[in-house]
Design goal:
single chain, Alpha-Beta Plaits, elongated, CdaR_GGDEF
Length: 357
């Protein structure tokens, strides 16, 4: 596509400046420098390219080359070249200032949009209109993945840029939005393209040196993005509370935990009733609670549980018997196991016994 023609008024009084510089050897005044900075800013706002504008100045220099310099007067030549340098430098400075301001405005608009999108603020219809500017069609279903690393990240940091580069190289034509929020990496992708979020999870896990990634379920509409985002955040928190070490957590696989804690008071009552007596043990409830947790995670296999806890099977058996004595529930009895295991999950979710119920 041909570049737009640059009008003569973009150059201002450039020809006159060159003529006067050749005749008197003068340099540009402060007012002239400021005028050409303004011309550069206006050219940037008009959408012209800096390379084309510099080329236009060089063409005008050749066309308006003063007679004194053309006769070979070295003083005049030096003065003209100095005026060219000053003029183009001032013009480029104004152009670059305008571009930086535009970039800052774009960044601010993008950040405002992302905040509104992930917090569910602003009018949903207006939000959907703004989303098209950033490549999202909110009328469709979207899913959100969130990655947490060992440190907080901003969009300008190396880790987000590395992940974004990998995503764009793999999915250049997809409607994807990658950003950061509250120090975490966030990827929003169409719900019909789970491969995007799987690849994001792989790249984010590697770039954050083992950080955990959570993926929300796909949901439709502007409110669907914030719903999926909240699910991903909840999954990360669930992973922390439950000591889940999976590199990728899927909200769809963890739905049982929100169900268990929906009635927090009932869950707290169960934890107190089933596990409260463990606090009478020597050393408190934590060692025996950990024993139960590992026992259930090991499929109630004593040998595997003992290995994970670095205990002998005999020592493990003693602990299980002690739990039976204190609580009245036998972890090896299927009739008692369900209540105990549910209480152990509840204890993790409620951060008991560290927090009093």
């Amino acid at each position: 596509m041909a570049e737009p023609e640059i009008p003569d008024d973009v150059l201002g009084d450039y020809a006159l400046i060159l003529e006067q510089a050749a005749a008197t050897g003068r340099r540009l005044t402060r007012e002239e420098l400021e005028e050409h900075r303004l011309l550069g800013r206006e050219a940037a706002e008009a959408g012209f390219q800096l390379r084309a504008l510099v080329r236009r100045h060089l063409t005008a220099t050749r066309e308006s080359w003063p007679a004194a310099a053309a006769r070979g007067d070295q003083t005049a030549v030096a003065a003209v070249l100095a005026a060219v340098e000053q003029t183009v430098d001032a013009f480029a400075e104004g152009f670059e200032r305008a571009q930086r301001l535009t970039v800052r405005r774009e960044e601010a608009a993008r950040r405002e949009f992302i905040d509104d999108l992930l917090y569910g603020r602003s009018d949903m219809g207006r939000l959907a209109e703004r989303a098209t500017r950033f490549g999202l069609r909110l009328s469709r279903a979207h899913a959100v993945a969130v990655a947490a690393g060992p440190e907080a990240y901003t969009e300008s940091d190396a880790v987000p840029r590395t992940v974004e580069t990998a995503l764009l190289a793999r999915f250049s034509g997809r409607k994807i939005l990658l950003t950061t929020k509250d120090g975490r990496l966030v990827c929003i992708a169409p719900g019909s393209q789970p491969d995007v979020l799987r690849y994001f999870a792989k790249q984010a896990h590697a770039a954050t040196e083992g950080g955990q990634v959570a993926v929300g379920r796909p949901h439709r509409g502007p409110g669907g993005v914030v719903h999926s985002y909240d699910e991903a955040l909840d999954a990360l928190e669930m992973g922390r509370l439950m000591d889940l070490d999976d590199p990728v957590l899927y909200a769809a696989d963890l739905l049982v935990y929100p169900v268990l804690t929906r009635d927090r008071q009932a869950m707290a009552d169960l934890v107190r009733s089933e596990l409260g007596p463990l606090q009478k043990a020597r050393g408190g409830a934590e060692p025996l609670l950990e024993t139960l947790s590992v026992y259930f995670d090991s499929g109630c296999v004593a040998a595997e549980t003992a290995r994970r806890l670095a205990l002998s099977v005999r020592a493990l058996t003693y602990r299980l018997e002690r739990i039976h004595q204190l609580t009245g529930s036998d972890p090896s009895d299927p009739m008692h196991r369900y209540s105990l295991q549910t209480a152990v999950i509840g204890a993790r979710l409620l951060d008991w016994p560290a927090k009093e119920l």
